[in-house]
Known about the structure:
Radius of gyration: 18 Å
Structural class: mainly alpha
Number of strands: 2
Number of helices: 9
Order of helices and strands: HEHHEHHHHHH
Strand content: under 5%
Helix content: over 70%
Amino acid sequence: MSDRLDAVIQDAAGTGAAVDDLWAAAYDELRALARARLWRTGHRTLLDTTGLVNDVYLKLARRRKIHVAHRGAFFAYCARAMRSVIVDMARESQAACHGGAGQKVTLDTDLRASLPAAESDPRRVDEALAALGEVEPRLAQVVEMRYFGGFNEAEIAAALGLTERTVRRDWSRARVLLHTMLAS
C-alpha cells in the first residue's frame, strides 16, 4: 500500500485532491487491480492492463479534483470507472456484431453449452447490478468493488467502513440475487 496516496489525500482534505496527484500515487496499485480483473475474465476483452488503467484515467481526468476521504473511497471510485470502461467496451463489441460481423452458429443440439454464461457478460452483469443498486445500494457497491475492482473482503470492509463478516454476508446475498436476476 502506498503511503504516498494517503499523504496526497490528507493534504487535500476538504478541498479535493488533484486527479493527477492521486493517479501518480496509486498507479501501481491500480495496475495490479486491473491485472487481477482482466485475469479473472480470462482475457476475453480487447483491453490489456495498461489500456484499462489508462481508460480509467481518461474518465477521471475530466474532473480536475476528486473529493475522497480515504484510500478506500478513491479505489471504490476507480472500481466504478473500471466497471464503466469494461461495460462500454462490451457494448461496443456487441454493436459491431449487429453490423453484420455476427458470430456464425452451426446447427447443434447442444447450442446452449456453446453460448457464454450470463455471469461472464459484463453488459448483463451491469444491467443486473444497476437493478440491484436501486434496491440494495450497499450490496451493489460490494459487488462493484469485488467484481469490477478486484478488491478482497478486507479491502472492501476498510473502504466502506464495514466488518469483513458483513462484507462476506453482503457478497453472498448479492451473488444469490444477481444469479437469480441473470438466470431469468
